[in-house]
UniProtKB/TrEMBL annotation:
It comes from the Bacteria. This is Radical SAM core domain-containing protein. InterPro entries: rSAM, rSAM_sf. One of its GO terms (molecular function) is catalytic activity. Signal peptide: none annotated. It holds the Pfam family Radical_SAM. Residues 183-418 form the Radical SAM core domain.
């Protein structure tokens, strides 16, 4: 690690952060990172000298723990600690409330991009970039010269081009990541095993209309190598690996296991965690041999299922091609898998929203509160607000009522893209 003071700027280069994501109420990037501190802000950079975080350090900043994060999809996301003292951890299971700058499915009104303090931070980054370009490299030590050269190469146009190449590599922007990716702050390496979706539900605003396609092994192998090359020295900042896309579990079982082993070998991730989406059909058809092999991998695996409802009329209204019996069967198998395998956690999504079947909430309440002996600390239920819902206070009220009676950990599913 190097540090250097230049007038009112402090440079801290290649500081070692934690090797895994730490759930804590303070910003601490994973892996190695560099930092430029001004009298008003801290600017964090990855090892490719790309801007990743901005945090205000004066009393005018919304909160000492709040910050801006730039994702690999080149979205700026403001991380708030809450709205009006609301218990954010009871909503999301995390210390932070991500306020997204694109349409999603929140149950709160959060638009920090109209807040001058947040917009001033982005403006301060533009000004710092301009100031850095005016420095005389000859006055600086060689290690700082190289760092600033790399930072200045990552101007706005260059970052946009890198994002274009990233999306081209993974065959398009990922419209949604699994809710369990919150365990690594949605910082994942996306390795696609499938494209498209097995179901084409009427309510869904984020998944593909394309038919499910299973990618050949050669394409998966090439994708992994290209991702390693693209991420380069910044691989140490990733703990999560998303085996996508919308139904990665629908890939051939051997392909999933081989892709997981390939990812572990290629990315050399410390404390690796796999994330997947699974449909009820792909989940129910998996045999015990698959689960045993998956559990033996040196990694944790989270699989998220879209169950949506246990009410027949609601399932029909949603265009979900499942019966309540299939939903219940999937739920029962989820509990069994969670109880049997140490390294595998299966989670489930149910919907909240207006204009669902009149029996949706009563059925869901009875279902989640039944069989007290089935309650466990491992199973997590996510409630996903419909994007068409307008009455956000009502959604939050519904969520807290369900959370209160649920036998399982229960959180809001905030849809994030990449």
């Amino acid at each position: 690690m190097h540090s250097y003071h230049l007038k009112d700027l402090i440079f801290i280069l290649e500081k070692q952060g934690p090797l895994k994501y730490l759930r804590k109420p303070a910003l601490e990037p994973m892996g190695k990172y560099s930092l430029i501190r001004t009298p008003f802000y801290e600017f964090y950079f990855n090892l490719k000298a790309e801007i990743k975080f901005i945090r205000g350090i004066t009393s005018t900043w919304p909160h000492p723990a709040a910050f801006l994060k730039r994702t690999d999809g080149n979205d700026w996301v403001f991380y708030s600690v809450g709205i009006g003292g609301a218990p954010v951890r009871s909503w999301l299971g995390e210390y932070y409330l991500p306020c997204l700058g694109y349409p999603s499915n929140p149950v709160w009104d959060c638009d920090p991009y109209q807040d001058p303090r947040v917009m001033n931070a982005l403006g301060a980054w533009a000004q710092l970039f301009a100031n850095l370009s005016g420095l005389n490299p000859a006055d600086l030590p060689p290690y700082l010269q190289k760092f600033l050269e790399n930072v200045l190469q990552n101007h706005e146009g260059a970052l946009l081009e890198k994002t274009r190449k990233f999306h081209q590599l993974i065959k398009g922007r990922l419209s949604v990541l699994p809710p369990d990716a919150r365990h690594v702050d949605y910082q994942v390496i996306p390795l696609n095993l499938t494209k498209g979706c097995l179901y084409h539900c009427k309510f869904c605003a984020v998944k593909s209309d394309n038919f499910l396609a299973r990618l050949p092994r050669a394409e998966i192998n090439e994708q992994a190598l290209r991702l390693k090359d693209f991420l380069g020295p910044d691989l140490g900042a990733y703990q999560g690996i998303f085996l996508g896309d919308h139904d990665g579990l629908a890939a051939d079982g051997e392909v999933i296991l081989q892709a997981a082993e390939l990812a572990l070998e290629t990315f050399e991730t410390a404390h690796p965690v796999f994330f997947m989406f699974g449909s009820v059909d792909s989940f129910l058809t998996r045999k015990s041999s698959f689960w045993q092999s998956l559990d033996q991998l040196p990694a944790k695996t989270y699989i998220n299922l879209g169950l949506e409802s246990v009410d027949l009329d609601t399932l029909k209204l949603l265009g979900k091609p499942l019966s309540p019996g299939q939903v219940r069967e999937g739920f029962s198998k989820m509990l069994a898998i969670n109880g049997q395998y140490e390294n595998i956690t299966v989670t489930a999504n149910f919907l909240l929203g207006e204009n669902l079947g009149e029996n949706h909430l009563p059925c869901l309440s009875a279902f989640l509160s039944a069989d007290k002996n089935k309650a466990d600390k491992k199973t997590t239920i996510y409630f996903s607000p419909l994007t068409t819902s307008q009455n956000r206070p009502l959604l939050l009220e519904q969520f807290f009522e369900l959370k209160k009676i649920s036998n399982y950990q229960s959180y809001i599913y905030l849809i994030q893209r990449l």
